[in-house]
UniProtKB/TrEMBL annotation:
<keyword id="KW-0012">Acyltransferase</keyword>
<feature type="transmembrane region" description="Helical">
    <location>
        <begin position="6"/>
        <end position="27"/>
    </location>
</feature>
<feature type="transmembrane region" description="Helical">
    <location>
        <begin position="236"/>
        <end position="254"/>
    </location>
</feature>
<feature type="transmembrane region" description="Helical">
    <location>
        <begin position="350"/>
        <end position="368"/>
    </location>
</feature>
<feature type="transmembrane region" description="Helical">
    <location>
        <begin position="388"/>
        <end position="410"/>
    </location>
</feature>
<feature type="transmembrane region" description="Helical">
    <location>
        <begin position="39"/>
        <end position="62"/>
    </location>
</feature>
<feature type="transmembrane region" description="Helical">
    <location>
        <begin position="261"/>
        <end position="281"/>
    </location>
</feature>
<keyword id="KW-0472">Membrane</keyword>
<feature type="transmembrane region" description="Helical">
    <location>
        <begin position="416"/>
        <end position="435"/>
    </location>
</feature>
<keyword id="KW-0256">Endoplasmic reticulum</keyword>
<keyword id="KW-0808">Transferase</keyword>
<keyword id="KW-1133">Transmembrane helix</keyword>
<dbReference type="GO" id="GO:0030258">
    <property type="term" value="P:lipid modification"/>
</dbReference>
<dbReference type="Pfam" id="PF03062">
    <property type="entry name" value="MBOAT"/>
</dbReference>
<dbReference type="InterPro" id="IPR049941">
    <property type="entry name" value="LPLAT_7/PORCN-like"/>
</dbReference>
<dbReference type="GO" id="GO:0005789">
    <property type="term" value="C:endoplasmic reticulum membrane"/>
</dbReference>
<protein>
    <recommendedName>
        <fullName>Membrane bound O-acyltransferase domain containing 2a</fullName>
    </recommendedName>
</protein>
Length: 467
């Protein structure tokens, strides 16, 4: 049976879903001031946090308060560095105390889970303020009020499961200007009909709730039948052929993923139900509700490359890592990004084993794509063969990489890799050493030289669009 903490989490999220509909209909920006919307969103969020985590929820206010003080007193020039160090350091301190002081292996009702999202929001805002990107149409830096800051960090829509979002997008949602801005981005001009009614998220919310129901049923049906820990069972390892072990590894991870599908899709539905997440219109004129989308299930399960898998898994976290680390790190950005991801996730040794392995797998996958893929693009049959092989390789590599993430401890994780004779580590290192891949700055330079006219036109169009 599910633990009481898991039940509390689901009940609170369902309450947040019902509240989100009420928030959109009865506290609509046309009826209520931004001040009231901020206050209600913040108080409801903190109530849910208290219900789930008790007085540990005070850490959310402490982390937010300390970093807000830095934003006020440190100045724009250095605030992003100080906020990054303090937010991540405070998160790590709480993770250490929770794991090694309170209960090692306590996975449910983890009060540091919401702090991970708050850390993303704090650092994202600090970097936006530093970069001068806190308004839609100008580069002036605008410091949020304390109420806006707390509402952004602790609102009821994202306090329990995220996802993170842009501060600008959240403020536009509170003020009711988000629909208008996204509509202009999609159509390039104002439309009288758009002013009369906001696009309804109801259909998208129902679709996502159906996805939640399906993934929850799949998880409840499979996770006990295919536990990941069984990959280390001595009898299973001794009596099963290697291909059976590979197949079981894949099935056990397929049985594990629906848990994340359920949590993130439900969180997305809550945001949409409140009217947040509108992202313009598609080519058919239908509203898109994917501005805070956190995963694409079909693309994950059909991914034919390591990058494609990661690009569609925990999307908002990947964007955060890209903004605050990958695009800013002058040397070895891939390794730095994986290291930051490990520190952000927590202090279990399995996390670090997973992300160190992820560095090798990412570099190996990049080398294969750059050197081997061009030879399979001549005919449709060749492309199909390449896609099938790379799909199988990607799925096995992902499963192999994330086993320590699930097992958490060093002993079981190393036992698994030794059972497999570290084969994918060795293969990955060989591919990285044998297959040449140009450094990122050289690839970017060549791309700019080859596509300079198109790049210029695109920059001009983007400038016109912003104007």
């Amino acid at each position: 049976l599910p633990s009481p903490n898991c039940v509390n989490f689901v009940v609170c999220q369902l309450f947040a879903l019902a509240t989100a509909f009420w928030f959109r209909l009865y506290l609509h920006p046309s009826k209520t001031s931004p001040f009231i919307r901020h206050v209600v969103a913040t108080l409801l969020g903190f109530y849910l946090a208290l219900f789930c985590f008790g007085w540990y929820a005070l850490h959310f206010l402490v982390q937010s308060g300390l970093t807000y003080g830095i934003m006020i007193f440190a100045g724009v020039e250095h605030m992003h560095k100080y906020c990054f160090v303090l937010a991540l350091g405070y998160l790590t301190f709480c993770q250490i105390t929770r794991v090694y002081v309170f209960d090692y292996g306590m996975y449910s009702a983890d009060f540091t889970g919401p702090m991970m999202v708050i850390t993303q929001k704090i650092t994202s805002l600090a970097f936006e303020l530093h970069d001068g990107k806190c308004t839609h149409i100008s580069s002036d830096v605008k410091m949020p009020t304390l109420l806006e800051y707390l509402s952004y960090n602790c609102n009821f829509m994202s306090i329990l499961a995220g996802p993170t979002c842009s501060f600008n997008d959240y403020i536009a949602f509170i003020h009711g200007t988000g629909y208008h801005l996204k509509h202009l981005e999609s159509n390039g001009k104002e439309n009288g009909k758009f002013k009369q009614s906001d696009p309804s998220p109801n259909r998208e919310v129902v679709r996502k709730l159906c996805t939640c129901a399906a993934t929850l049923l799949i998880y409840l049906a499979l996770f006990r039948a295919c536990p990941v820990a069984y990959v280390n069972d001595d009898h299973f390892v001794a009596t099963s052929p290697f291909y059976v072990q590979v197949l079981y590894l894949y099935l056990s991870m397929v049985a594990t993923r629906p848990k994340y599908y359920f949590v993130w899709t439900l969180a997305d539905a809550i945001n949409n139900a409140a009217g947040f997440g509108f992202n313009g219109f598609d080519k058919d004129g239908l509203p898109r509700w994917d501005a805070v989308l956190n995963l694409r299930i079909l693309k994950i399960e059909s991914a034919t490359s390591f990058k494609l898998f990661l690009d569609n898994w925990n999307i908002q976290t990947a964007l955060w890592l890209k903004r605050v680390c990958y695009e800013r790190c002058p040397y070895n950005p891939t390794a730095a990004t994986f290291l930051l991801s490990a520190v952000w996730h927590g202090v279990y040794p399995g996390y670090y084993l997973t992300f160190v392995t992820g560095i090798v797998m990412t570099l190996a996958a990049r080398a294969v794509r750059h050197n081997i893929r061009p030879h399979f693009q001549e005919t449709e049959t060749h492309r199909l063969v390449y896609d099938v092989i790379t799909w199988a390789g990607t799925q096995v590599a992902i499963c192999y990489t994330v086993v320590p993430f699930v097992l958490l401890a060093v002993g079981p994780s190393l036992k698994f890799y030794m059972t497999w004779y570290w084969c994918l580590h060795i293969l990955g290192l060989v591919l990285v050493l044998v297959l040449p891949v140009k450094p990122r700055h050289l690839r970017q330079k060549e791309a700019q030289q080859q596509g300079s006219p198109a790049t210029t036109d695109n920059n001009y169009n983007q400038k016109q669009k912003t104007t």
